[in-house]
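Sequence design from tokenized structure. All designs in this work follow the same two-part layout: the structure record, then the generated sequence. An example of the structure record is given first.
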């Protein structure tokens, strides 16, 4: 089964922010090492980091009219920060991988969602 792991940043410190700068060198290196190890797993297809929600453009169609809004459509404390794809035997394996993603332990959350098989 294929799973998409959606990385919700929450309060996770991000590189280039004051919160990231407060982390020790060891903590920052551990985060980089964890992401690298995950991305090198054969069953993982790495995604990309997303720009912050403020950079989003939301498109809706109402009554045949296209409505464009700057920024995210919904308010969220745990904005989507990135994703990866994981092919696993079962949900337990996907949950185990999600728990290894640094954002899960640093104030964020990982949403594990199975893909529809065709």
């Amino acid at each position: 089964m294929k799973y998409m792991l959606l990385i919700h940043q929450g309060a996770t410190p991000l590189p280039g922010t004051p919160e990231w700068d407060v982390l020790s060198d060891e903590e920052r290196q551990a985060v980089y090492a964890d992401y690298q190890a995950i991305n090198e797993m054969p069953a993982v297809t790495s995604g990309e980091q997303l720009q912050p929600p403020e950079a989003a453009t939301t498109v809706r169609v109402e009554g045949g009219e296209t409505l464009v809004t700057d920024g995210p459509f919904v308010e969220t404390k745990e904005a989507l920060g990135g994703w990866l794809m994981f092919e696993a035997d079962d949900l337990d394996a996907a949950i185990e991988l999600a728990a290894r993603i640094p954002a899960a332990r640093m104030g964020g959350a990982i949403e594990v969602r199975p893909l529809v098989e065709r």
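The two ends are 11 Å apart (CA to CA). We note this feature because it recurs in several other targets discussed in the main text.
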